[in-house]
Amino acid sequence: MRAVDAVIARRLASGVPLVAEVSRYIINSGGKRLRPALLLLICGALGYRGDQRFNLAAVVEFIHTATLLHDDVVDESTLRRGRATANENFGNPASVLVGDFLYSRAFQMMLDAHDMRIMEILADATNVIAEGEVMQLMNMHDPELDEAAYLQVIRSKTAKLFEASARLGAVLAKAPPALEQACADFGQALGTAFQVIDDVLDYAGDAGEMGKNLGDDLREGKVTLPLIAAMRRGTDEQRALMRRAIEHGATDELDQVIAIVRQTGALQVAREAASAEAQRAMSAGAQLPANEHAQALLQLAASLLQRRN
């Protein structure tokens, strides 16, 4: 990861001071670096030791960071990872344009691999992520959203880059098709579990630990699995209150909605869904050669279920 950070620092260089300043602000804001770590661990498990793993790990972090910059503008977010968002600090125009810079820099860096398969994987991933963002926008404030539509969004918006990161590691290692697919399946399941737990924490977490405001999803009109499960399990009166809150992003009823989500057992439903995805990841990961890197991947999948931030 130190080698990846060195690549990131070098490739953030720009002759435009604001580009470098905003990029450094968001890159250095304490992210988990899960996608680069996933790529590095897959490479380690499959025996690839070339420097291109550091370059592509930086690429996926740049793509992820670009999506965060754009997300926070769309969601009008003010807090991420315990600090002011880039759009809060620098304004929406700077955030959008620096996000564009990070996307284009990532595509420049992809060329270093001299591999059209890598370009194909990353081009497809960025397109699917963009589609997921639009699907989520269309689903805003919709109390009728079901679990299938919710999963379609998070598998596009969040899990796709996890899937691509894992697949890239396999491609670098020249893994056979079946093993490459197992790595991709691991990444997709891991990313899905990660997002479901993230959505659980929006109703069950601690704002101080998470570094963002509790109930942000409801405030922004996002209908996530805890809400979907609560709508299914609640009384008519509870459903009516949640419907109003979803349709209007009603912050004055936030405490009541959080209480209903907790009382109906909706959080347990969502945690069980995340656990099923983590188990799916571990089943796929079991196809990797037995070594310390593969073991770390299995531990990573298991650890998601204990997330607190």
TrEMBL record:
The keyword Glycosyltransferase does not apply. Pfam families: polyprenyl_synt (PF00348). Supplies octaprenyl diphosphate, the precursor for the side chain of the isoprenoid quinones ubiquinone and menaquinone. Belongs to the FPP/GGPP synthase family. GO terms for molecular function: all-trans-octaprenyl-diphosphate synthase activity; metal ion binding. One of its GO terms (biological process) is isoprenoid biosynthetic process. The keyword Nucleotide-binding does not apply. It comes from Ramlibacter montanisoli. Its cofactor is Mg(2+). PROSITE patterns: POLYPRENYL_SYNTHASE_1, POLYPRENYL_SYNTHASE_2. It comes from the Bacteria. This is Octaprenyl diphosphate synthase. InterPro entries: Isoprenoid_synthase_dom_sf, Polyprenyl_synt, Polyprenyl_synt_CS. Its EC number is 2.5.1.90. It catalyses: 5 isopentenyl diphosphate + (2E,6E)-farnesyl diphosphate = all-trans-octaprenyl diphosphate + 5 diphosphate. It is an enzyme of class 2 (transferase). Keywords: Magnesium, Metal-binding, Transferase.
